[in-house]
Design a protein that fits this description.
The protein is an alpha+beta fold. Helix content is 67%, strand content 10%.
């Protein structure tokens, strides 16, 4: 009967660990290979249980989950060691807490608890594994999903040391109970200490996951800033192109005189070559005038030209607003992100497709930028902020970039969805004195 209890215990531990890893990571091998590795882990731990060496079982538990993390989920060595150590710390703290509580209320011998008394072994296994699963479930709920990119926090190794310290403390308490037969007050202290260690490891894990989230968010913001810089350079090139076009158009009379001279000479080939060179220099006149700021015109023109062919109606009222209090990169981050989200959502609308951009001055020192667009579906909201439905989007980082510019200039960003009209509205207010 004890063998069946041990087998069920190891199977449950494997299933609990599988639940943890599957929630947090994406499998890197096929299902048959993963199933084979899990079956081998159960077989190894079950076979070792017959030697009546609990610490050997602990070492094999850590080794098995390290192998699972490394070979089934493709983690780095430090990551696989951290998560194997965390599971071991959770498993041991729950097991020892249950052990000390049973000793506290039953007065049974330590060796009988583990190797001889079937009833006590069953109670211990059920109690410990239920609490173990609860701990792992809590860890999975606060966990950051890691997919193809393996994120490594700089705090991973120090946290691994804390998990190892937890195991040594628990082993020390267990050996003390076995050799010194402490009274009930000591058993109560050890029981509470085991539960506190469980809580400490979950807290440590929460800190680890928070660090990963910050690291991921900072990486996304860095990518967004780089995109803004690239877009700013692109808009500046459009402005230079427009200035070149203006110069060439200004010289149209001279070009016509040159063409006339070549025509009089009857040199048709040179006329064609001359006209082609002028045409290539001028290119497509895609920069429209919407405001008194060339960069603003370049940004708005980009989306107007791109989406007008898709049937999106664009209404723009920028007026002669002075944008000099904003750096070029800030203008790009503000308008490009707002218009990118707005035009993409409007283009996906089934009926009316429209975007309305309004920039106005309010109360002398405040600039109000308002973008209203139609939508084809109710936008998703996560963690209190709207999530873009654009394919490949960074999950709202664009609006975060807008908010960063707004906050820098003492303003605020408000986003609303009006379900009755199926329109999304983003309003940014900035103080031009900050």
């Amino acid at each position: 009967m004890n063998d069946l209890i041990y087998l069920a215990t190891f199977v449950f531990e494997i299933l609990t660990g599988l639940f943890y890893f599957s929630v947090k990571f994406t499998r890197a091998v096929s299902r048959p290979i993963a199933a084979l590795i899990f079956a081998a882990a159960v077989a190894v731990q079950y076979g070792a249980s017959h030697f009546n060496m609990p610490y050997l079982n602990l070492a094999l538990f850590i080794l098995c989950w390290f192998a699972v993390g490394k070979f089934v989920y493709g983690l780095r060595i430090s990551g696989a060691a951290f998560h194997a150590g965390l599971l071991a710390a959770l498993m041991m703290s729950t097991e020892f807490a249950a052990t000390f509580l049973l000793k506290l209320f039953t007065d049974i011998d330590a060796n009988d608890l583990f190797f001889e008394d079937t009833f006590n072994l069953l109670i211990l296994s059920v109690l410990a594994k239920i609490v173990y699963f609860i701990g792992v479930y809590i860890a999975s709920k606060i966990s950051l999903r890691e997919k193809s990119v393996r994120i490594l926090a700089p705090q991973t190794l120090p946290l691994l040391i804390l998990s190892a310290a937890t195991l040594f403390v628990l082993i020390g308490m267990d050996e003390t109970v076995k050799r010194c037969a402490p009274d009930k007050s000591i058993l109560l202290v050890f029981s509470l200490a085991s539960l506190f260690l469980l809580y400490a490891n979950l807290t440590v894990f929460a800190v680890h996951e928070y660090t990963l989230r910050l690291q991921k968010k900072n990486a996304e913001l860095l990518l967004q800033n780089q995109k803004n810089e690239i877009d700013t350079e692109h808009y500046q090139s459009l402005i230079r192109q427009k200035e070149t076009e203006d110069i060439i158009l200004h010289d149209t009379a001279k070009h016509m005189a040159a063409v006339r001279a070549l025509a009089v000479e009857g040199d048709g080939d040179r006329i064609v070559s001359y006209i082609d060179s002028v045409y290539n220099d001028i290119g497509m006149n895609t920069l429209r005038r919407f405001s008194s700021n060339k960069l603003v015109d370049a940004i708005v023109s980009r989306y107007y030209n791109k989406y007008s062919e898709l049937g999106v109606d664009f209404f723009c009222d920028v007026r002669d607003i002075d944008f000099s209090f904003l750096a070029d990169a800030e203008i790009t981050a503000l308008l490009d992100n707002l218009l990118s989200n707005a035009f993409a959502a409007a283009a996906a609308a089934e009926k009316k497709k429209s975007v309305d951009l309004s920039v106005r001055r309010q109360n002398v020192h405040f600039i109000v930028v308002s973008v209203v667009n139609t939508c084809g579906a109710i936008p998703e909201k996560r963690n209190g902020r709207f999530i873009s439905a654009k394919k490949g989007d960074q999950h709202g980082v664009g609006l975060a970039s807008v908010n960063a510019v707004v906050k820098k200039h003492g303003g605020s960003l408000r986003t609303d969805f009006h379900e009755d009209a199926m329109t999304f509205e983003a309003v940014a207010v900035l103080d031009d004195t900050v």
